[in-house]
Specification:
Two copies of one chain form a homodimer.
Chain A lengths: L7 E2 L3 E4 L7 H7 L2 E2 L3 E3 L14 E3 L3 E5 L12 E5 L8 E5 L2 E2 L6 E10 L4 E9 L5 E10 L6 E11 L3 E10 L11 H6 L4 E9 L2 E8 L5 E11 L5 E7 L2 E10 L5 E12 L4 H18 L1 H19 L1 E4 L2 H18 L24 H13 L1 H13 L1 H10 L29 H17 L2 H22 L1 E2 L5 E2 L17 H20 L1 H6 L4 H12 L5 E2 L4 E2 L9 E2 L18 H5 L1 E2 L6 H7 L6 H12 L10 H10 L3 H13 L15 H15 L10 E2 L9 E8 L2 E7 L3 E8 L3 E5 L2 E5 L5 E4 L26
Parallel strand pairs in A: 26-27, 28-32
Antiparallel strand pairs in A: 1-2, 2-10, 3-4, 4-5, 6-7, 8-9, 8-14, 10-11, 11-12, 12-13, 13-20, 14-19, 15-16, 16-17, 17-20, 18-19, 21-29, 22-23, 24-25, 29-30, 30-31, 31-34, 32-33
Helix pairs in contact in A: 5-19, 6-7, 6-9, 6-19, 7-9, 7-10, 9-10, 9-11, 10-11, 11-13, 11-15, 15-17, 17-18, 17-19, 18-19
């Protein structure tokens, strides 16, 4: 596949040099800015043309009825959809009475740059109006990582060739019309103009609008404040009405005498606070931002990012495009998680309305590993959010007739929003994924406060779920029947290996956590009998294995099922679920996304090297990768079994998911898990990092296309750097007490006083490259860059 | 459970002696009249009070969108709901200006009688109006079994104590308001006033209204014509407008001088014929009915029923109530199937709008066995309907990626209407049930015309489905994975025994049918290779068996699943699916309705007697009977394994389903399959009749509560009578050529010249009575009547 790059290849920036209206929606996602609380899609300053206008506040949603052709007990009645909140990034420009709109006149020059170290989106345009007046427009936009409630824009316009009259309209617009998606008309109706005005106030150069969502009753305030630089005679007018606040500047400017507007935008929302309270919260944030000032906001932004990259950067040599993509992905993951503080990290972050803005298991299984080792406080906050929904998860478990907590398949506020239970409620692994992520965080940080406040309770309540979900059969083996694993092309199966192994770890970790702090455990009603029950169930856990084939069965009887007829599947029939019925997908051997192979990674301690190689080869031939939650895991295991070129191809696919719009749906937002997965592919794949039981081990080995890989990990109050070359790896403890790790099975003690270099052992012939279904090999397979 | 009988116990009538408004909806179903084409609920003549007004035309439906919270490929987009058609049974009465309404004034006497030999619903009322005028009202209603388009009412009013002014309004009313059911508001909206007027004409004493359904575009005509007897000075006026036609009679009558109105009502509908065409069709039918006259319509009705009862009656001694219930049930099954002619037999017949008026597998598996041996031409017509939907079933199979035909789980016109695929699309056994029913009909009738026109094609296309649905595993065994059997508390399982065995018979029968007529087979593209493929698959069919427990597993791994916690299930938590989520029901051992046990009946040739006894006992302990499609099958197998009292209890439950409103939902229509199931319980249970491979065998044995059972069977142009006493059974060939049957394994040749009596062998101790889950023993367990 030869692709036409949309963006220039540079190490620290993503640059768009032409404006392609067919790609505008993708660009809006790629150029989205966020701090985890506020998300602004990369819409043009003037609002139009757009692919999808988008301004999001984490957790701010509207409810809508979930309809069923045939209802059933326990089906969620109400769904949640992220709301396009009041748009504060709008700055409209009129030049000699003509609106600046790139669809008219002539666009002489266009450039946008997302700067991964500055944390800004900047733009430079030269435009000639239909009547021939040329102007230069420059803008820089940021969503502050330092001041959570604040976004800011500096906007500058300057005429070319002669004086020009200009008007700037800086706005807040609520209830923007958005393009209709297909689907249930009642859902669409619920999201049409979801915001009901409660307050509109304006004075001087500032304004605040307060709205409340019609059904969910969530109250939000948006406000702006401005600084103006330019000619002395600028006329200003400010107005505010229900769904609009507008500051209008009118003046005439000359070449070399730009008009510059600095716009501070603040957001806040609450499910409980009053209209005056949210108004004041936003006004206060604006006052603080103005006091901080534009230059300082930019400095703070850079400082935050410098700190992040210093701790977390992953450098690769040999493929500049992959280097760029890796950093781009890490930047988006950082943006999604940085200031999430008590809310979820949705599958698309705050970059688009895809998946209704819901959070899934993606967060715990793909996003949090990167954050745990790069920005642990963000991982902690995301887990705190899960903990804050424990009551909802307990109620859900009770409704389902289970003990403990059942976390939702998809949600914004913690309540289950899945309207299709075989791939929602039945996918209980999400609860194990939360526990797994919690254990990883605890092992990596030794965060005792979190353990006491959240971690142990999470482990206890999730273990209780498994204990009540499974049962011992006549032979005393522990079974978990009728569940759906990660592979969404199978459902309602018995003893899914991934689910059983993630449950096994959960049960063990809960037992260990309560054993280590009996007093805390007692507070949760855990006695030694209960903990023993968890350990017994874990020990007796069934892991289906097909003796004839010598591979693990993804779930019981799985390998008895017919293999999907890949040869008869047209190449344009992917993703399969849009072209074939679930009943047929479920009953055949065809894998949407890594399932058994994900177990080989996350529970690699439960498999031998030989099993991994055989299992990987077997499931490669069945995996169509109709999900973005797959390539990174396949990269990790391909690397582990020595299929390094294949691993490289998978990593590249994961990393380029959005820059190359590989699934043709980046318009709805970037694929946060795939972007985080590129980090996983680098660190756990070519770095060979594993963290089973909190013990860091490495089996680094580079593919031919890379000459060097360097990454850093935050681990137990330490900072570790690993540098991998073709023949040796070097481990450096940059900060903290000595730490024992392993390199290809050899134990090393890292100390800050010196780096440790170790040769990389010879790779035994890993055998032939595993084959994928026809046409489903990794989509990008290039030589060295 | 002590029940308060709603109806007097009489051998040939169902009599209601008081009007209980709390039971009025149940009575409307019990007293519904139908000929399989027209259905009139037993609403009071004057229309109110009602439980649910109902006038149905078989196959006449309105479409409605099927909503999904999360859509999927192949989900039906449109549903179908039976429409409450133009109500022609309305005759309103005013007495001295006061409307006759039993909720006002005084109801001195009320009686309604459904006469199973006359085929009429008659009514006698004495009512005193609020101002004190007493009247006697008598009406007799029939839906003609002889003239398919016709219903008729004779209505008589007579004053008591003195002269009275009366007004009669005989009406046709379209778009009657009906009580709202809960559920999707869009579906409700689609069914509110579904009829759009196209024509309204009235002249003399007759009128015709033509309407078309808004979405489905089906055109119907309803008409009335009248005869009047009474005083000479009756003033009449007729009018017709969009949704109303009305004949008004005004007169004064005296005691002994009743006013009598005879109303002929005609219906017709078509998806293709024009407004004038359906108008004329109905006018013509009215002319014919008037020409036939009321008395002759009644005679024809009786003659039809005499013929039916002569061929089909089942007599029992020892329980008069059960005798009544049996005949009541057979009468409703007759009504549902008599003149169905190219349409489906819905689960509720035409007695209510339950299940949206859809037909399910109920028809083929429970209703058609009775009709096959009692009124074979009705069975043939029902199967012809299935055949007429073959193109739709072929399209559905193709959409699902399968060969042959996939019949819908629920439908009116042949298109799939199920909005929940795990219990719809996945329940492929419905297709095998069609084939099974077809084979039974062919074996029982030797109807060569049907075989050529429909039967062989049905067997071929259904066999093709199975061949493409299943596959051979590595060991060469034929598997059918990911399907749902009859038990709706399990779904998407591998190798469901019932499904596999019904498929096995289907494959064999198709092979045999095409082998016996290669030319016909060639017309369907069947060659000897294809037929051999069917036989091979049938031979290699997997039938899961649990060696440890010594019982068949309902499906693979079923017996490994946890047993439902019956002790923790509150008695008011039935049916379970209204109180527990599907995910939990599906993954545990709990059976909604006979599944494996149904295989023991319909594929009894595939099990040994010992296996049947063990399997029955095992599944009895798991079966909660939350479906009305269960008790009759449990009765049959209970009788076969010698548990005669248990069989009697199950038969009683099946028979009394609607007369006693056992499931508290007879208001929505009678349970046709349960009523037909009472016949099955009598004939296949205590008569021990089996028809495997077209060979009739009997193992008759009575329970203590019965002293005699006599039934007749139409079989291959013969009429056979079987009379069972406590110690002997007598077989009589009433008509036709000699026939070989078997009595308890002993072969007998029946001839018309003499009856054959045989002693009933001693019953070996069948062991302890199998136990049901707590509280789920058959609901009616009484001593001898």
């Amino acid at each position: 596949m030869i692709r036409q790059p949309a963006f220039a290849v540079e190490p620290w920036t993503v640059r768009e040099a032409t404006l392609d209206l067919d790609r505008i929606a993708q660009s809006e996602s790629v150029f989205a800015l966020s701090n985890g609380h506020i998300g602004l899609r990369g819409n043009l300053d003037e609002g139009e043309p757009f692919g999808l206008p988008g301004t999001y506040l984490n957790g701010y949603y509207e409810g809508r009825p979930l309809p069923y052709a045939e209802a059933g007990f326990g089906y969620p009645e109400s769904g949640q959809s992220v709301v396009n909140a009041t748009n504060g990034k709008l700055i409209r420009l009129l030049v000699e009475d003509e609106p600046f709109d790139v669809r008219y006149g002539e666009l002489r020059h266009h450039e946008r740059v997302l700067d991964l170290r500055e944390g800004t989106l900047s733009r430079e345009v030269e435009w000639v109006s239909p009547v021939g007046q040329a102007v230069k427009v420059r803008s820089v936009r940021l969503v502050s990582l330092a001041q959570r409630a604040i976004a800011a824009i500096q906007y500058e316009v300057e005429p070319i060739g002669g004086r020009a009259r200009v008007v700037l309209q800086s706005e807040l617009v609520a209830n923007e019309p958005i393009p209709h998606s297909e689907g249930d008309p009642r859902a669409t109706a619920a999201l049409e103009a979801p915001l009901v005005s409660e307050l509109a106030a304006a004075r001087d150069l500032r304004s605040v609008l307060v709205h409340v969502t019609r059904r969910s009753g969530l109250r939000m305030a948006a406000g702006f404040e401005h600084l103006i630089e330019g000619p002395d005679d600028i006329a200003t007018a400010v107005q505010a009405e229900e769904d609009l606040a507008r500051l209008t500047l009118t003046t005439e400017i000359a070449p070399g005498q730009p008009l510059r507007l600095t716009k501070f935008i603040a957001y806040g929302w609450s499910s409980v606070r009053s209209t005056p309270a949210v108004r004041d919260q936003v006004s206060g944030a604006l006052a603080e931002a103005k006091h901080t000032g534009w230059d300082s906001l930019r400095q703070l932004q850079k400082r935050f990012l410098d700190g992040f990259w210093k701790r977390a950067d992953v450098e690769i040599e040999g493929d500049p495009e992959l280097q760029q993509a890796l950093r781009f992905g890490m930047f988006h993951v950082l943006q999604a998680g940085a200031r999430v503080e008590g809310r979820a990290i949705p599958a698309k972050g705050l970059t688009g309305s895809g998946y209704d803005g819901h959070a899934f298991w993606d967060t715990e299984t793909f996003v949090l590993p990167m954050l745990t080792y790069s920005l642990p406080e963000a991982a902690r906050d995301a887990l705190r959010w899960r903990h804050s929904t424990l009551d909802q998860a307990r109620r859900r478990a009770a409704q389902l007739g289970l003990e403990g907590a059942a976390f939702p398949w998809r949600t914004i506020d913690g309540d289950e929003c899945s309207g299709y239970w075989p791939a929602g409620t039945a996918a209980f692994h999400v609860t194990g994924d939360v526990a797994d992520s919690c254990s990883r965080y605890l092992e990596a940080t030794e965060d005792e406060d979190f353990a006491r406040q959240c971690g142990t309770e999470l482990l206890v309540e999730t273990a209780r779920l498994w204990r009540s979900l499974g049962h011992h059969d006549k032979a005393g083996r522990f079974r978990i029947d009728g569940v759906t694993g990660p592979d969404e092309y199978s459902a309602i199966a018995d003893n899914n290996v991934y689910t059983n192994l993630i449950a096994q770890r959960n049960l063990r970790d809960a037992a260990a956590a309560t054993e280590s702090d009996p007093e805390l455990a007692g507070g949760f009603g855990v006695d030694s009998e209960e903990a023993a029950g968890w350990r017994d169930a874990a020990e007796a856990m069934i892991v289906p294995y097909d003796e004839d084939l010598g591979v693990h069965a993804q779930s019981e009887s799985y390998t008895e099922h017919a293999v999907w007829d890949f040869d008869a599947t047209a190449s344009d029939h992917h993703p399969l679920f849009l072209h074939y019925p679930y009943f047929d997908l479920y009953r055949k051997q065809v894998v949407k996304q890594a399932d058994l192979v994900l177990a080989l990674h996350l529970r690699g301690d439960a498999f031998t090297a030989e099993e991994k190689a055989r299992d990987f080869a077997y499931y490669e031939a069945l995996t169509v990768r109709d999900s973005s939650l797959s390539a990174c895991t396949q990269a990790v295991i391909a690397a582990e079994v020595g299929q390094l070129d294949l691993a490289f191809a998978y990593m590249t696919e994961a990393a380029l998911m959005d820059l190359d719009d590989l699934e043709q749906n980046s318009r709805d937002g970037v694929h946060m898990a795939s972007l985080a997965g590129a980090w996983i592919a680098a660190v756990a794949g070519f770095g060979g990092m594993r963290d089973h039981g909190g013990h860091l081990t490495f089996t680094p080995r580079l593919p031919e296309n890379l000459t060097r890989l360097r990454f850093r990990l935050a681990f137990r109050h330490r900072l570790i750097e690993v540098e991998v070359g073709a023949s040796a790896a070097t481990y450096t403890l940059l900060d903290g007490d000595p730490l024992e790790v392993a390199h290809h099975g050899e134990s090393l003690t890292l100390k800050t006083d010196r780096a440790t270099s170790k040769p990389i052992p010879h790779l035994d012939d890993p055998g032939p490259r595993p084959q994928q279904p026809p046409g489903r090999a990794p989509r990008i397979t290039r030589g060295p860059g």
